[in-house]
Each structure stands twice: as C-alpha cells, then as structure tokens.
C-alpha cells in the first residue's frame, strides 16, 4: 500500500509544466491537486488544498523567494518546498533559505523529479549531484578543516545521519534521543560549523566524508 502524495505546482505555464503534469499522471502515488502561475495566490491555494508538497519554479517573476517561503511557513508550518531551476541561472544562495528542502534542474530526467518529490514529501532533502558539486566547488559555508575534531562523537553521528537524508524524527528513533535533544544537537552543530541551514551542514558533512552519498544525491 503506497502513501498518496498531494502536490501543488507554481510554474509559469511552460512546456516544462506540461512535462511535469504528464510525469505525475504516470505515478499512482502522486496527485497534482492544484497549480498556478501567480505566486501571490500560492499561500491561499496552499491553505485550500493543504498539499504534502509545494513545487515552485524559480523562474517565476515578481517575488522574493525568502519572503515567500517565510510567509508560507507562517501560514502552514508543515509546508515542504521543492524548487525547480534552470541550470544556467541557478543561484546557490537559495540553498541557504530555511524551508527549501530540495532543488531539481528542469533539464533532468522525469524520474529524478519523481524521486525528489517522494524524498521531500517524506521529510528528507534532495539535491542533484550537479548541485552538490557546484556547492563544493564554490565552498558554500567554507569551514576550517580542523572543525571535525571539535564535533563530539554524538554530533558527528547526528550530522552523518542528516547527510544521508534522515529527518529529526527518524534520527531521534535511531539514536534513542528525544526530538528536542536532536534539535539541540543541531543547534550546537550549526554554531560550531558557522552555518545557517541544513543544506550547508549537509555539504560540510559530504566534504568531510560523513554520511553516505547516493547517485542523484538524496541528502
């Protein structure tokens, strides 16, 4: 028995949108509950349909992404956001915005989008191998190479599991910790690594070989 994933799409009425709709229609567990090309309507539609996942096209104009994500989470704290990007316009700084759980390039294979949707809807994060490589090359959240030695064994366990795509709830079960304790560990890890987002912490973990990488990296 599979879990139905309800998707709300914000996309600019392009051929990419046609492809997304066709891709979702082929998957029994993915249902497109609504779509818009006007991000000003997204919060209202999100409240109306209460989807499991929001897909937002970064090429939509006339909106500030950080403010949009913040407003969505203020109204619907459960919202999970997957972004679509053009590889030639992709700005790595968007990965520092809290609330974005993944990004897929429009040029990628349809099955990559399907995998990303399922991962993000389950509470994990997803970035393609290309994005991971770009992040490492540009050294987002560049850290002192000796920082690893300052992380306790437990902190290294926590960040290693996060690098494998685990959410806080799953980590708490695996390590027999309360979820608040996991959050406390994350806060200390962020401080030690001088990072501001989960994606930056994950990139640091990958650079330092903590956690397992996957093809089309699910992190």
Descriptive notes:
It is a single chain. With 219 residues, this protein is α/β, with parallel strands linked by helices. It has two domains: 5-127, Response regulator (Rossmann fold); 138-207, Arc Repressor Mutant, subunit A (Orthogonal Bundle), CATH 1.10.10.10. The chain has helices spanning 15-25, 42-49, 65-75, 110-121, 129-138, 147-150, 153-163, 168-174, 179-193, 198-207; strands at residues 5-10, 30-36, 53-57, 81-85, 100-105, 126-127. The protein has a six-stranded parallel sheet with strand order 2-1-3-4-5-6, sandwiched between helices. Strand 3, helix 3 (65-75) and strand 4 (81-85) form a beta-alpha-beta unit. Mean pLDDT is 81; it is low at 213-219. One of its GO terms (biological process) is regulation of DNA-templated transcription. Keywords: DNA-binding, Phosphoprotein. The modification 4-aspartylphosphate is found at residue 57. GO terms for molecular function: DNA binding.
